[in-house]
Design goal:
The complex is a heterodimer.
Chain A lengths: L3 H17 L6 E6 L5 H16 L2 E6 L4 H13 L7 E5 L3 H4 L20 H6 L1 E2 L2 E2 L2 E7 L1 E5 H6 L8 H17 L6 E4 L6 H13 L17 H13 L13 H9 L3 E6 L2 H6 L10 E5 L13 E8 L6 H11 L2 H11 L12 H6 L2 H4 L1 H5 L6 H4 L3 H16 L5 H15 L7
Chain B lengths: L1 H40 L18 H8 L1 H33 L5 H7 L2 H4 L2 H11 L6 H8 L13 H30 L2 H10 L3 H29 L3 H7 L8 H11 L3 H31 L1
Helix pairs in contact in B: 1-13, 3-8, 3-10, 6-11, 8-10, 8-11, 10-13, 12-13
Classes of the chains: A alpha+beta, B mainly alpha.
């Protein structure tokens, strides 16, 4: 039985290869996301490369939910399967998946990484190995209602305090004017990865660090982080509806897009949908960077986005790396920015006239993407999911008023330190 | 004569096993093997990303699990969910079944119509309900506010007090039709003679229900309740769609999935899954024993 199977597969392969006529050409498979126009853009890019090089590429459909996709990848890689050559991976996965990925620097020139955002290349480099190349990036941004701010003579907020004051003022005035369902600010505070992104922005904007520093030391218990969470706690039931504690991206967009919120924290994808033909707030939306906290804080945005990596179990790692190089190239990222408003991972494209004409807010948001703050996934490695869960559960408890910010972060500090085995993380 | 009979019996037994064999083999492959594998992983430190390097660690996973307060919170949530939702579904299902058992025009259409909630895939109805429960644009708050039953919108799924209650309500909405159908089938099997003689004797309808219908319906009721309880104890989709990994509503299955998939801890997640299996098996055994004792009396 065991001997028969490989023979059968070889036969099958021979028949397939023979019938296709292309004896020396290889067949690669790539997994792409299928959210919106993603699949179509991926297929077009892949086919262009296939035509150029005379190889064949299969596009494999994977689940849309990133958690499900992560589980699938883990199972495929754990079984050392060569079914998928090229994986589209989330910005927080390189740390976990690195042992199963090819070091791309041996296939592409050293200089090839220079065109990308350095933060992304740093994120994709694990223990000196370049395990992925950035395909498109993402960062948390702040949406606001241009019309409402103009009506009440308010400026787009540069700090959280300004946002809190403006949101409360407009919310109360609008409610008095006969819109009882108006809220000041919506964001993602359900207990999931999205809350990790939001809360990291609050803490980072106050200068409170990124939970774990570059050396692996847990830093989350500090006065600035406490101040950030205290401010966020004060929003619940005031400028933010209590229900925000169960909102993900889509539910906050539901409130904002139905015209019931002044501000919203979300990812860039909400821009296209908010300006769609059937949107009640079409043309009334402004986008700025997530505000700064405290007196010496800075504007920020949590880093998101997707990378392309090559599986260690691929039969054709060199060809696969070439396809990755092609898909992440300047020309291809420009095509994707024009056709699907995907944020390029290449700084030069944010100065490209065609790109700026198609998606104007890329220009104003450039600094946000450049200085996006990364979640501590690289340092925490395979324990990142646990770190993130402990963090969002803690923040959720603080926001829902179960525990005060200071003791909550002290407990979290202990938990994470224990999880890291004294800052080792391995 | 007797040897002949026993040979026939033996032959029958043999052919019975022969006919059952394919099913048993399939069951062993698709149910038994994964179950054994899961139980086995429960005693190791296997990770999802690299199961091959698993080491045997004895009962460590189980002792850690039994000390984890979040696990016990999940057990508690699941128990509350199972007991409350199945109790409500049984009572409501029985009322609906009795109503549908009566003769009236349009009965067939109504029977089909009440099955609609059951026919909608759980993920779809859970998502639909979580939008309806939304505190700002949800229709439930809108209606309650319009009727002046509440003065402020309630964040149904966000506050710990109402989240589990909301999930139970959705489950009752979804599963009562199924319960009603099972009980209706039971009602239609009942012998009509008892009811006729009760009618002749002029017994009060309430007394008929408690003295005749309910005792006769008991076997059907027992089966329906055990079906639903087993289902409710491994409840996953409603909770996961409506409130994700929130610890206020987390069920045992959500807990196991988070450990196994999100955290990639194959060993610990398998230990949790094994515990769920053990709890449900124990529950079934106790329930069936009690039910059998009740019937024999």
């Amino acid at each position: 039985m065991k001997l028969l199977l490989p023979r059968f597969l070889t036969m099958l392969l021979l028949i397939l290869v023979g019938s296709s006529g292309a004896v020396r050409a290889a067949t690669l498979s790539i997994s792409c996301g299928a959210v919106g126009v993603e699949m179509r853009l991926c297929r077009q890019g892949v086919e262009a490369w296939a035509k150029q090089t005379g190889n064949q590429v299969k596009v494999v459909a994977t689940p849309n939910s990133s958690t499900e996709r992560f589980a699938l990848y883990q199972q495929i890689l754990a079984s050392h399967s060569s079914d998928i050559d090229i994986l589209q991976i989330d910005v927080v996965w390189p740390g976990t998946l690195a042992p199963h990925l090819v070091d791309l620097s041996q296939y592409i020139g050293k200089d090839a990484t220079k065109q990308f955002f350095p933060a992304l290349i740093a994120n994709d480099t694990v223990n000196g190995k370049l395990v992925a190349l950035p395909w498109f990036t993402n960062a948390g941004v702040l949406y606001y209602r241009k019309d409402l701010l103009k009506k009440y003579h308010a400026q787009p907020p540069a700090t959280w305090q300004q946002l809190t004051d403006t949101a409360r003022r407009i919310q109360n005035a609008e409610r008095k004017a006969g819109n009882p369902r108006m809220y000041g600010f919506v964001f993602q505070a359900k207990g999931y990865e999205g809350l990790t992104c939001d809360a990291l922005e609050w803490i980072d904007s106050f200068g409170g660090g990124t939970l774990i520093d570059a050396d692996g030391k847990v830093t989350v218990d500090n006065p600035r982080a406490v101040a950030a969470l205290q401010l966020a706690r004060s929003w619940i039931g005031d400028i933010a509806p209590r229900g925000v504690l169960n909102y993900d991206e889509e539910e906050s967009r539901g409130v904002f897009q139905s015209g019931n919120a002044v501000f919203m924290r979300n990812w860039p994808y909400a821009w296209a949908l908010g300006n769609a033909k059937d949107s009640p707030i079409r043309g009334k939306i402004g986008v700025i960077a997530v505000p700064a906290g405290g007196t010496d804080g800075h504007q920020t945005g949590t880093l998101g986005g997707w990378q392309l990596a090559v599986s260690r179990y691929s039969q054709h790692p060199e060809l696969a790396a070439d396809l990755v190089r092609y898909l992440t190239s300047y020309a291809e990222q420009k095509r994707r920015a024009l056709a699907g408003s995907y944020n390029p991972a290449i700084p030069a494209l944010y100065r490209d006239h065609d790109v700026l004409a198609a998606v104007p807010f890329f220009g104003t948001l450039y600094t946000t993407f450049e200085h996006a703050v990364a979640r501590p996934s690289r340092i925490a490695g395979s324990k990142y999911a646990r770190v993130s869960a402990e963090f969002y559960y803690t923040v959720h408890d603080v926001l829902s008023g179960k525990i005060a910010a200071a003791p909550a972060l002290a407990t979290l500090q202990q938990k994470l330190t224990r999880l890291s085995r004294g800052g080792q993380w391995r | 004569m007797s040897t002949h009979a026993s040979r026939l019996t033996r032959q029958r037994v043999r052919s019975a096993w022969l006919f059952l064999a394919p099913v048993l083999v399939v069951l062993a492959l698709v149910a038994g093997w994964p179950l054994l594998k899961t139980i086995g992983y429960g005693f190791t430190d296997a990770s999802l990303i690299d199961p091959a390097s698993a080491k045997f660690i004895g009962l460590d996973n189980f002792s850690y699990l039994l000390l984890d307060s979040h696990w016990w919170a999940a057990v508690w949530n699941t128990t509350v969910f199972a007991v409350v939702s199945v109790a409500l579904e049984t009572v409501l299902g029985l009322v609906i079944a009795l109503a549908l058992n009566a003769q009236f025009p349009g009965r067939g259409g109504l029977r089909a119509a009440i099955l609609i909630p059951w026919a909608i895939p759980t993920v779809v109805s859970a998502q639909m309900w979580s939008w309806m429960f939304n505190d700002v644009f949800g229709v439930i708050n809108h209606m309650l506010l319009a009727l002046h039953l509440i003065s402020h919108p309630i964040a149904w799924l966000a506050s710990p007090d109402t989240a589990l209650l909301s999930i139970i309500l959705v489950d009752v909405w979804k599963t009562t039709p199924f319960m009603a159908l099972l009980l209706l089938a039971g009602l239609q099997m009942l012998p009509q003679e008892c009811f006729e003689s009760a009618r002749v004797d002029g017994v009060h309808p309430l007394k008929v229900f408690f003295r005749i219908t309910l005792p006769l319906l008991k076997p059907a009721l027992t089966v329906a309740i055990i079906f639903r309880l087993l289902d409710a104890l491994r409840m996953f989709d409603l909770v996961y769609v409506m409130s994700g990994n929130s610890r206020d509503t987390m069920s045992m299955s959500v807990y196991a999935r988070q450990q196994l998939i999100d955290f990639g801890d194959l060993g610990f997640g398998s230990a949790a899954a094994t515990m769920i299996f053990a709890i449900i098996a124990l529950f079934t055994a106790v329930y069936l024993t009690v039910a059998r004792v009740g019937r024999e009396r």
